[in-house]
Design a protein that fits this description.
The chain contains 17 helices and no strands. By secondary structure, the chain is mostly helical. The protein folds into three domains: about 130 residues, Leucine-rich Repeat Variant, CATH 1.25.10.10; about 60 residues, Alpha Horseshoe (Leucine-rich Repeat Variant), CATH 1.25.10; about 60 residues, no CATH class. The N and C termini lie far apart (about 80 Å).
């Protein structure tokens, strides 16, 4: 009998996994794979008692665990509670960077309007570049109004080109952006920022933005980066008049093969 109890004790973690998935939401006992599998199983019936176990996982150092916990809380209609818990982790200066990054990812995944304030604060007042990048991307993922000023400030003034590029991407996703900051970003010293600005400006919401065709033509003709030229050609594919058509025709002879190919494709789609 003593040997039987010893076998059961040694095998307990794997044996327990066959039971209630709520019992597998303990990060002290189980790794990321088991935690994620348990949450996916719980999503089929979403028991209310899971909320108390899910909230601490929003700051788990494995970002996919935090993302999955946020996803499940959103499905359960508990976004505000999740946003409060993740915001607390994000604001905790003693928490590890990994935990705070997970909290940022969770705030984006929750898609709750109450998450915006914590993300805006992280974007504008955090010394860690990775956290600012993640905060900008999460604000875009939220797709909520109210973050334009913070994103514009990051786009125009942040010393990190990765943060500026992330802000440009996010400004293409928030519903209240007017496009003028993105137009200015087409002159950014970083090609990655210019690329993200072009991609955002190609969205239908900016279709009638004054001066956009001229800026895109200028990039197509004069930018030093071949990818930026090609991206400008792609963005011009559904826009403009004969001036745009002429610019695309001329670009087909560009020394930049990528831009020439993009211009040829753009012309084809315009016909």
């Amino acid at each position: 009998m003593r040997n039987l109890w010893l076998v059961l004790l040694l095998a307990w973690p794997s044996w327990a996994q066959a039971g209630d998935p709520l019992q597998r939401l303990d990060p002290d006992l189980y790794g990321p794979g088991t935690l994620i599998a348990a949450m996916e199983e719980l999503s089929t019936y979403s028991p209310a008692q899971a909320v108390a176990e899910l909230l601490p996982l929003l700051g788990h150092e494995d970002i996919e665990v935090a993302r999955t916990a946020a996803w499940l809380l959103r499905r359960m209609g508990r976004g505000p509670e999740g946003a409060q818990a993740a915001g607390t982790v994000l604001a905790d200066g003693e928490a590890s960077v990994a935990s705070r990054l997970s909290a940022v990812r969770a705030l984006g995944e929750l898609r709750d309007s109450t998450a915006s304030a914590a993300l805006v604060t992280a974007l504008g007042g955090n010394s860690d570049e990775a956290l600012r990048v993640a905060a900008a991307r999460a604000l875009g993922q939220l797709h909520r109004p109210g973050a334009v000023d913070a994103l514009t400030q990051a786009l125009t003034a942040d010393e990190s080109e990765t943060v500026r590029a992330s802000a440009a991407q996010a400004l293409g996703q928030v519903p209240d952006a007017d496009g003028h900051a993105l137009l200015s970003a087409l002159q950014d010293s970083s090609a990655s920022v210019r690329l993200e600005a072009i991609w955002s400006l190609a969205r239908p919401s900016f279709a009638v933005l004054a001066g956009l065709d001229e800026r895109l033509i200028e990039l197509l003709q004069n930018d030093q980066n071949c990818r930026v030229q090609a991206e400008a050609a792609w963005a011009l594919s559904g826009r403009g008049d004969q001036k745009v058509q002429a610019a695309l025709e001329a670009a087909r002879a560009s020394n930049c093969r990528l831009a020439a190919q993009a211009a040829s494709w753009a012309i084809t789609t315009r016909k």
